[in-house]
Design a protein that fits this description.
Elements lengths: L1 H38 L7 H4 L4 H4 L15 E4 L2 H4 L3 H4 L7 H9 L3 E3 L7 H14 L15 E6 L3 H12 L6 H12 L4 H8 L1 H17 L4 H12 L44 H22 L4 E6 L2 H4 L6 E3 L11 E3 L1 H21 L3 E4 L1 H7 L16 H9 L3
Parallel strand pairs: 1-2, 1-3, 3-4, 4-7
Antiparallel strand pairs: 5-6
Amino acid sequence: MSFLNSKSSKLKNILFKVSTVFFATFLTLVIVNFTLFHLISNQNLPRPFASTLGNYLFTYYPDTYDRSTLNNYNAILGDSNAMGAGDGYLNNDYNYSVGHFLFKKNNENYLNYARSGYGSISAVSNYIKLTRLEDHIFFKKKINKPSIILFFFYEGNDLDENLREFELTGKNFFNIKEYVKFKINKNITINKKDIIEANFPLLNFFSSFKEHLINLSREENILLGIKDRIKKIFGKRVILANKELIGNKKKSYWKNKTKKENVKDIRPIETAAGDLNFKQINKSLEIFFESILYLKTWEKKDNIKIIFLPSPATSYDWVDPINYYPRYSKGNLDFKIITKSKNMKNSTYVREKIDFFSRDNNIQFIDLTKKIQEETNTNVLHGPIDWVHFNLSGYEFIAKNIK
C-alpha cells in the first residue's frame, strides 16, 4: 500500500512540475507578446524585426503619429513607393518615407497602409480590412476613420500589377466593376486566423524567424550570413534580399544627360507603362478607378486625394532611347527600349485619364510630375542603390509639394 502511495506521490510531483513549466512558459509568452504589441509602434524595435510582426502592426511601426492624439489621423495607401521603400529604408535612416516627412512638416498623424507589390485592388482591400480588424484588437484603443486618405498612384508599375492580376483571376467576370467588387469583398473578409495573427505578433515572429533560418541555410557562407543579419539589426546597411539592387556588370547600363554628374551608368529603370498598349492601359486604369469608387463608397465622404508619382523614366531628361525593366512582358528579358517621346505620350495619357476621372467624381488629383521634373534639373530623387524607389530627398520633396 505504501508502495502505491509513493508511486502516486511521485506522479503527482511530476505532473505538478510539468504543469508549472507549462503555465510559466505560457505566461512568459503572453507577457512577451503583450510587450511586442506595444513596442512595435513608433519604431521602437529594430527595423529588420518590423516586417516579422504581421500586416496589422506594420501599419503602426513607422514613427509618423502621436499615440496620444491618434483618433485624428490621415491614411496613406499605395505600393512600395507610398510605403517608403528605397535607399532610406535600406540605409536604416530613421525618417525613410513620405509619411515621416509629412508628419514632421504638418504635425498631423499618418498611418501607412501601403505595402510592397500592391496593385489598386490590394491597396484598397488592405486598408479596409485593417480598418475593420480594429474592432477585434484586444490590447489597444479603437481609432476613428481617417480625416484624409492619400492614395499614391505610381506610374512605374501600378498599371502592370493591375493587368497581371486581372489576367490571372478576372477573365470569368462580366465586367471590370463586377470583378473589382468581388475581389475586394473577398479580400476584406476577416477570419479567425487574421484576428489571432493581429493580436499575437509573437506567432508571426516565430514564423518569420523560421523563414530566416531556411534562407540562411541556403547561403554559401552561413557565418557571413549571420554577421550580416546582426549588422542589419544594429542599423548597418546590409541588403539581404534583392541583392541585384547593388548592381550586376552583366546587365545593361546607360548614361543620361542630367546636370548631376554622379547620375550615370544607371540600371534599366521603370517607365510609364512601357509594356502596355492603350487598350491594356485603359483596362488597368478602369480597375484603378473602380477600386477608388469602392473606397469612396466605403468612406461615405469626399476625403480621398490621388497623388500621382511619375516613374524614373518620366522624372529625368535621359539620353534617347531609354533602357527600361519590363514589368509585364513575357520572356524574362533583362531590359527593353522605349523612346522618350513614347514614354511621355504614355505618361500624359495616363495622367489626363486620371485627372478627368477625378474631376468627374469630386476627388482631388495632385499630379507631381512637372514639379519633380523641375527638381531633377538640379537634384537626384532616386538611388544611388535603388532606382525603383525615391530616396530621402525624393520623399521629402514629395511631402513638401502635397498641399
